[in-house]
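ok trying again, last paste got cut off:
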Amino acid sequence: MESSSMFGLRLSLKQRYFLLLCVAVGAILAYQYTRNRAEVRTMSRVEGLKANSSQFTLEGKPFRILGGSIHYFRVPRAYWEDRLLKMKACGLNTLTTYVPWNLHEPERGVFNFEDQLDLEAYLGLAASLGLWVILRPGPYICAEWDLGGLPSWLLRDHNMKLRTTYPGFTDAVKSFFNHLIRKVAPYQYSKGGPIIAVQVENEYGSFAKDKEYMPFIKEALLSRGITELLLTSDNKEGLKLGGVKGALETINFQKLNPNDIKYLDGIQPQKPKMVMEYWSGWFDLWGDLHHVYTAEDMMPVVTEILKLDMSINLYMFHGGTNFGFMSGAFAVGKPAPKSMVTSYDYDAPLSEAGDYTTKYHLLRNLFSLYHTQPLPELPSLQERRAYQPVVIQQHLSLWDSLHFTDKGKRTLSLLVENCGRVNYGKTLDEQRKGLVGDIELNRRILRDFIIHSLDMKPGFVNRLESSGHWMSLRHRPSFPGFFQTRLYVNSSPKDTFIKLPGWGKGVVFINGKNLGRYWFIGPQQTLYVPGPWLHRGDNKITVFEEQETDGKIQFASSPDYGMTVDVQ
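nice, full thing came through this time. structure:
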């Protein structure tokens, strides 16, 4: 009979077959064992987060949500774990995050859940670190985000009625939820995952244009496989109109009013009380001052909330950054919208760059009282560096970067900028951008404009390299225009902040990544540059500047958010 050499042994053909059979049986048994363990683990999770009494229960035991908001889309992916570990070390047990529809479906029918937008990886990371998750999938999220997270392509329908049961809107929501819920449903508690609750829309009581809308969103979640506890959240004015049957109502505020708590208790007797958004700070607008909410003001409120046996979610625990062009705009009570700044530091307990603050340490001391075991050690901080200034090497006029037809005719060129769509209020349907009316010259309406969409995406910025119109600074630059230089890093890259004191208004790209807008009117005077977005050697910096430049870029090791004002 034939024989063969295997692992240094000579085996007969019968022996080889027997060995292979053993390996196959072993693999089947191992698979069955793993599957059984998974089934046992899932079966043991039959009692998720419940709101059947005055306290939440998880697995039938009393449970208090000590939560904090960190948005994966505002934090470089390389730092997700760092920020969540710092959350856990502060004594929090639950992560909350919004889901930005406009990033995940940037064009109708084109979905992106990869890299920085890999929500499944974020949920898996939270689970591996022992954090529960409250998912807030929208479709509207507010979040000081462009159009409150709704994709702007919805507004191509001139009859669009956002956040209603208008068919053009509900059809788009259904399509998005078909993709989103399929991805997140396996991460629910009942399936062995970290998601213990899901929010139905967001602060609808402040909008409330359609009585059928909230039931529609609720059913859209349930019919696609959401089985965990449903929640709504509203500020005190919105509680009367923002709820939906079958979902626990929660409240949002910064300063505690006992009457608001009594009202919440009155509409939901013998139900758990939760502050879904305890505003730990506030956002900033271009042209205003930097808002701060002191630890001395914050801590007594958080302490009282816990004494009232309530659950809490800190909005924000770590704000991060409005990278790119995703900052929203604020119009409530103002004659015209004001745009949000790039930083979303929010004066939160964990700073924009992940630093511990006074708030963080005081909260850690407070939350430690609600744990039976010592809290984890504090993770180390990221190093930062103030790199040496760099000088602009070349510039390119905006008009030279565009290809006009017949450049022999007299041409009227207009630059129209979108500084962010309103993210909150009842004017969402009015946020179309661009030239929205006629242009007249000597009472004559001008026609036949050639429109160039400057999306400023990495592809566009990279294509500028091939332009033959770049000039050195020996030639006087024209504005608006693009400016380029390189930052050489000779060691492991560190976090830094860009300063542009001699510049006017524009956008900074580094290695193709959009750091966001800058504007001399402040309050923000620096842009956060994450170390993982740099690399050893040359790093290409491209700046789009509208007004002026002093020809150099500076760096700092700490941020400058401008003059401060207390949150009122």
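cool. Residues 1-9, 33-43 have pLDDT under 50 and may be disordered. The longest helix spans residues 13-43.
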